[in-house]
Amino acid sequence: MRYSEKELLSLALQSPDREGKILHRMSGTKGRLVEGYKDRLIRLKANFLFLFKTNEQGQILEPVGAVLLERCKLQPEPKADKANVFSIALQDDPECKYYFACRSFDECTDWLTALRNASYENMRSNILLLQGKLSRQTGQPGLQLRHIPAAEQ
Amino acid sequence: MKLNEKNVTAYATCASPIDKDGYLHKRGEVNRGFQRRYFLLKGNLLFYFDRKGDKEPVGVIVLEGCTVELSSDAIESDCPNVFEIVFQGPGTRTYVLMADNHDDMESWMKALQCANYDYKRLQVQELQRQLKELEDRGVRGDEGDLLNGAVGGWAPQPRVNPFDKDRFDPKRVPPKTGVNSRPRGPNRPPPPPPVRGPPPPPPIKPTPAPTTNQQPSGSSTFFTPLDTSSIKQNGNGGTSLNTSKAASTWYNAAIESSDRSNSAGASAWYTAVPQNISLTQSAPASTSLNKSAAKASPGASRHNVRSAGVAGSSLFYDTSGAKV
Questions:
Q1: Which residues lie across from A24 on neighbouring strands?
Q2: H and E: helices and strands count for chain B
Q3: Where are the alpha helices (DSSP H) in B92-161?
Q4: How far apart are CA B212 and CA A101, in angstroms?
Q5: An example Gene Ontology cellular component term from the record (chain A) (predicted)?
Q6: Using CB atoms, which residue from A1, A65, A137 is nearest to B134?
Q7: I want to staple A67 with a disulfide (CB 3.0 to 4.6 A). Which of A49, B155, B265, B300 is the partner?
Q8: Per-residue pLDDT averaged across A44-64, rounded?
């Protein structure tokens, strides 16, 4: 499947919603070699999580991966080999997970919350919820947001 | 940069909500001709397939950081209904798309412009702000501000129209026959439904500032009938006449401006729940009310306040009626 790679890259390089250094490894499907944790910088932007390689000085090198955060399962992994680990499991292959090891429990929780709220579907249901609340209070269907022309965004 | 394509493909074909779908023609990057593709918009991802129902998309466009514009090509050449998705930045591509007709093109352009993540985020923030504003108004209502309070913290209740002649009210059975009814001749049209005094404008009470803590449990507690005796104290009989005339004028204006279907009788005055109160209107009725207030004796100085309150309130109801 073709995808707009350069455009996605420019998205990755914009100022992120959340960013942090983290340890990352993949868990393999059966038979795949499970590698050890690697130093990575992860950036959350819109509903994508981007992974960057860093060098010894902590400078960002090239992006090495992008994960679409829709319909994925996010959970803490208390029984993992390290502490404060959470995982992202994707719907197409639940065995193939992204493991991320944080430096503290709070960091782990914060990331999980941020990633959970990042999905477009989550925002969509938020909007429906708020519109419902508004219409219950005002007796009108949800107050309409005026169309914001693209130029103003 | 490796995108997890399997996951994205799975998202394209899974049962998540579709924002828009349909056939469009897409211009190739190398082959400059238009190819017909089935497009599927899910959130900020625009997938395109060879055909509807295909298992795997040919490609996906991430709609972030782009603008949707009419194509300059369309004006130059003979291709109408052509628009573009334009990305900024080095090495990025412009996707040229053609719809079958003008309406299709417009509807796609609108959908794509609103698809991006930031727009949705703005929507959420705007709705949260509107909710907060409503809640804040409810809080302010407790501070005794009549106008704000009339709106705030007041959940719409089913209102009871005491003037509804269809509704049986044992306290207010209109005299149809009997000692107090008007004499009716054989050819006289029946009198209009009896209205007790002037239709009650918002309460004028010779009491301290009406607190909006009298939150209505039913409408009747909030809008108590005008105490006509107190009005007469203000001046001569003409004043009260003016008042009632003014009141009925105001009342009629409210009726006319209200388009509620149940606005029979005085119910229009009850039913309006104004969302935005603006004090820009000044109904002629309120002028006479103000005049009557001006004639108030010093001893009834509170009436000035009340009348002003009435004027304000009549504005309030006029506005609401108009806005309805």
A1: A38, A100
A2: 11, 8
A3: 102-113, 117-140, 146-151
A4: 56
A5: cytosol
A6: A137
A7: A49
A8: 85
